[in-house]
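Hypothesis: this fold can be encoded by more than one sequence.
Test: take the C-alpha cells below, design a sequence, compare later.
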C-alpha cells in the first residue's frame, strides 16, 4: 500500500466514524437529556418539600423512588425475554 491509498482509507474511516457517531447521538441524546431532567426535577421537588416538614419530605422521597424505579424499569425492559 502506498501513502496515497493509506490517506484515502484513513479519510474513509474518519467519515464512516463521523456518520456512526451522528447516528449514535440521535439515539443517546434524548436518553441523556431525560436522565438529567429527571434528576433535576427530583432535586427541586425534594428541596421544596424539605421546606414544609419532615413528613412531607419523606413522602416525596418515597414517591420519587417508586416513580423513578418504575420509569427505569420501563426504560431497561428487555422486550419480554
Amino acid at each position: 500500500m502506498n501513502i496515497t491509498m493509506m490517506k484515502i482509507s484513513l479519510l474513509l474511516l474518519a467519515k464512516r466514524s463521523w456518520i456512526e457517531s451522528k447516528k449514535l447521538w440521535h439515539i443517546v441524546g434524548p436518553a441523556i437529556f431525560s436522565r438529567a431532567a429527571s434528576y433535576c426535577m427530583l432535586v427541586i421537588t425534594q428541596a421544596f418539600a424539605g421546606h414544609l416538614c419532615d413528613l412531607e419530605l419523606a413522602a416525596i422521597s418515597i414517591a420519587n423512588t417508586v416513580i423513578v424505579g418504575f420509569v427505569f424499569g420501563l426504560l431497561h425492559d428487555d422486550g419480554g425475554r
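The chain is about 85% helix and 0% strand. The radius of gyration is 23 Å.
Hypothesis status: open.
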